[in-house]
Amino acid sequence: MARRSLPKLSMNSTPSPRKAERLVAVKGMNDILPPDSARWEALEERVRALMRRYAYENIRTPIVEPTALFVRGLGEVTDIVEKEMYSFEDRLNGEHLTLRPENTAGLVRAVVEHNLLYNGGKRLFYMGPMFRHERPQRGRYRQFYQVGAEAMGFAGPELDAELILMAHALWIELGITGVELQMNSLGQPEERKQHRAALIAYFEAHADQLDAESQRRLHLNPLRLLDSKNPQMQALIEAAPRLMDFQGEKSKAHLDAVLAILQANGVPFVMNPRLVRGMDYYNLTVFEFVTTELGSQGTICGGGRYDYLIEEVGGKPAPAVGWAFGVERVLELMKAQEASAPAIAPDAFAIVTDAAALPTVCACLEQLRSKGVAVQLHASLDGSMASMKSQFKRADASGARYALVFGPDELAQGSVTVKALRDAGVAQRTLALAAWSDWADTLQSKA
Ligand code: ATP
Ligand code: MG
Q: Tens digits of per-residue pLDDT, 238-255?
């Protein structure tokens, strides 16, 4: 195969004597910095524990997928596929690739490719970055993180309910309040076909009130009109034919069974017959968790059933249901509600003034760490050993509970001085390095 020539990358071969131009992050893509990153880690840990309790297993799929996966999976006439995907051609082989805008399609691809449903269903969860080319604003970024849970190969309404209970439990555990659960059913394809015809007739009769995008989408995918964010169209959308009125007994029974489980568990919800979600793959149950505290980016979590997607991506037909939440939005809501921030200070801060003592000191610190004590060693920009006074200042600023002083006197005696930085009443103690591990044990029992 002939290699296509690569576009030249503009890189200077010789370093310029001038100060290099400052490079900044891509618009809408954020660095997650300490101490904020501690909130992320705490959330991720909570999620992992939650998933274990509900027996969901972790899965990690590539960030880059074939573009066709999303076009086929999400639907050609959707905001994501029409406007929001980061798609590109592989420079070497011309493959059409896309940075994943969501992870359900990727999971389905992986499940089919590796035949994961060969002996029954699978409960899976993921966490990671997604990419959508949207207008950046509060709660809306171009790289953002999602946590998602998917139950594949199960048709029963108890799975829809299980997933909702799980999300509900997570909000409680995170200390988030005031999130409204909105429920709807999109019925089955046959029912949607009839609804579609009614929708087209309705919107055609009011064609003068449609914006340009809605006029274009009317015959391609009229359901998408219901998802329009144009405020001028909301009254029209409100009065449009409702999918619920086209659903038969079986679809209604599925929804009722989900709602009965929610009710038995005291999970409050409201019915929202306008809720359609942004992707085409959903059927039957759809839901969103919504807050009024994040401005217009109020949906923190959304999901539903997608019983036909696995087949669409080339697998043996199998039902599935899942949700995803936006990590940034959940963390922002926690901040707005002043949910407690996790502690990030080390337990101890080591002060050492003589570079020759570093091998001994580092060995001592390793012993502590192997017992689970978090220890920070003082360090300087130029590698020199700072004065005792300035090291104490750093120790204080670190938030550590103890300073471990390896000064000249201590080292001469084979000992270390432990000074409590937070509890004024605790006297400082000098310990023999030989008995060092015991001190770690007392610290552990207090922690
Ligand atoms: P919206 O209506 O706000 O655009 P969506 O329906 O496109 O959301 P989904 O595709 O259902 O969102 O994704 C699930 C969750 O991921 C959303 O509820 C939201 O919390 C989060 N999310 C989606 N897009 C973004 C984004 N661009 N930036 C940050 N979070 C996002
Ligand atoms: Mg969107």
A: 999 999 999 999 999 999
